[in-house]
């Protein structure tokens, strides 16, 4: 292994480690080692990721004594469906998987969520190893145990909290990531800076060029730091009963944009970028945060190449926000910022206030 950092996620009997570094894929077998109860492994991946990394991972697992099979699901958000979950159950049965068999999710957030959901529910739960290969999956979706599939009515409406046994984040895999995916993932890193770590925010400002060139040292720092922040939040509130909600900074409007735009048009990170601008504008309007922090955020997002504006119809956007899980009793729960690195949970009862903040991000 060239370099590796280990981020512990302390959740009692559900504790696990996130191993972050470059060149880790060929060591996956050793990293899994004795950690897992069974020797039968099903790698769930998609054709593109399988072509790039499937052989390295399966060879490494075989060398460590695992019996390995691979199932591919099509790329794209549409694969996060009950239909494809059922397809996975069938593949697990065909491969005679039992309760000790292991599901390895090799890919981005779609694979992680779908394979994670299938692992959480097959035989009431089999061990799961996450090998995230997008920046978004490395800093966010593979950590914390949220797994889900979509329904036609909305994203992530069926799911579970199901912690993996191990997460292996090999930043070298990000070198093959399309630039748009990289930029989308960076939105989540900026989010961690906004909610918890001014230094991380400044790091992205300072080393953006190296990060966009996928330099391993910068990426290892970003992923390790982001995972440490997420791990800390999840340790305090595993099932999102309180403070875990701070991870939703930018997500109220972000999710609505993703859904309203038909969630194949905007990447998750792109929607979150606009959502963070709206949340920060609301914070400025409420006197919680300085205008210069909003300016810094906008400038950084623009430099990354992320959108800070939306042309989505306002009525449609507000209607979609009404369907979001964060709306209860007609009160919208939002995460606001008290300046870069600090957040606070807040409620909005006056939709006009939200509309005014959204209006500042209109591109038409
Ligand atoms: N569970 C959670 O806590 C959580 C958090 C945030 C987002 N999500 C979910 O994550 C999903 C989005 O994940 P995503 O952004 O990773 O998208 P994705 O999984 O669709 O991956 C994006 C694309 O990149 C390709 N790809 C993956 N790794 C690659 C690599 N190393 N090189 C080249 N191409 C590669 C994939 O084939 C895919 O086409 C959404 O469904 C979202 O709801 C879940």
Which ligands are bound? nicotinamide-adenine-dinucleotide
N/C terminus separation: 50 Å
Oligomer status: single chain
How many beta strands in the DSSP annotation? Answer: 12
The overall number of domains is: 2
In terms of DSSP E residues, the strand content is 15-25%
The helix tally amounts to 13
Task: Give a nutshell description of this structure.
By secondary structure, the protein is of the alpha/beta class. The protein contains 13 helices and twelve strands.
SSE topology sketch:
Blueprint: E1 3-9, E2 16-22, H1 28-32, E3 40-45, H2 47-63, E4 67-72, H3 82-94, E5 102-107, H4 109-121, E6 128-132, H5 135-141, E7 146-151, E8 154-161, E9 166-170, H6 179-196, H7 198-212, H8 216-236, H9 251-260, H10 268-285, H11 291-304, H12 314-323, E10 327-328, E11 331-337, E12 343-348, H13 351-359
Parallel strand pairs: 2-9, 3-4, 3-5, 5-6, 6-9
Antiparallel strand pairs: 1-2, 7-8, 10-11, 11-12
Helix pairs in contact: 3-4, 5-6, 5-8, 6-7, 6-8, 6-10, 7-8, 9-10, 9-12, 10-11, 10-13
The chain binds nicotinamide-adenine-dinucleotide.
Nicotinamide-adenine-dinucleotide (NAD) binds at residues 46, 48-49, 52, 75, 77, 80, 107-111, 113, 133-134, 136-137, 140-141, 144, 146, 155-156, 173, 176-177, 181, 184, 268.
